[in-house]
Amino acid sequence: MKPTLLILAAGIGSRYGSLKQIDGLGPHGETIIDYSVYDAIRAGFGKVVFVIRKSIEQEFKDSFSGKFSSLIEVDYVLQEIEYVPSGLTYIQDRVKPWGTGHAVWVSRDAISAPFAMINADDFYGKEAFETMAGFLTRVDVSRPDFCMVGYKLENTLSENGFVSRGVCVSDPNGFLQSVTERTKIGRSGDHIVFQEGESEVVLAPDTIVSMNMFGFTPAFFPLAEAYFSDFIRENGMNPKSEFYVPSVLSRMIDENKGSVKVLSSNATWFGVTYKEDRPVVVEKIEALINRGDYPRKLWN
Hints:
By secondary structure, this protein is of the alpha/beta class.
């Protein structure tokens, strides 16, 4: 069974200033999504599912319609605030969906194979998709045996502002023990720090972090639904509360209901968190093309 690629593309890009998911960065207008799909196809993935919102649905589909549908099966699911488990209530003036855990949960009817989850605006690279495919093609589809591709923190920073990362702790056998979402991570002098209240907490450069590249089986969906239901009951009246994938995994591990293997990578992440990141990404893609990692024109 070929694995599926789930791309979280529902963000509006408030810090970027435009719909960054469809911003052309390659020499023929290729987006970061195009490169991710290209890498997934050559790694052996058989389907791609996009999580988007109604407000961007037509613009998004217009950008990708026909590009690679002859090479891989394509599907779309919508992530909207009102899509929650039945019988639950929440504050009515909320403006954003519920976060990455919610985005995966809404895709449950579109996915029946082991699958990788990634962000639309992060460039992971060929090696990461090959590593992920190697795990997903061997895993028992019925079991909650999951994985993630871990990156060294120093390889995941933006020079143009803070980033959020899941800071990971693994056991001696390489299984995830905990993942803690840290926001406002950046450089401060010679150190990498995150903000905790009014204080700065130093993180080691080789700290393993999540870049939201996780591998799951469909066993993830019932866990996510149960935990998401609890989350809505506890946080549904908070208009800014978010249900993160790392929160699902941390609770699952604490309750001994599944495992997450940390797959190592020396790759350097890059992405377009801020508008100022754009020229750097264009330059890095050009360098990869010149190195022979990608053709100058991805799709014919």
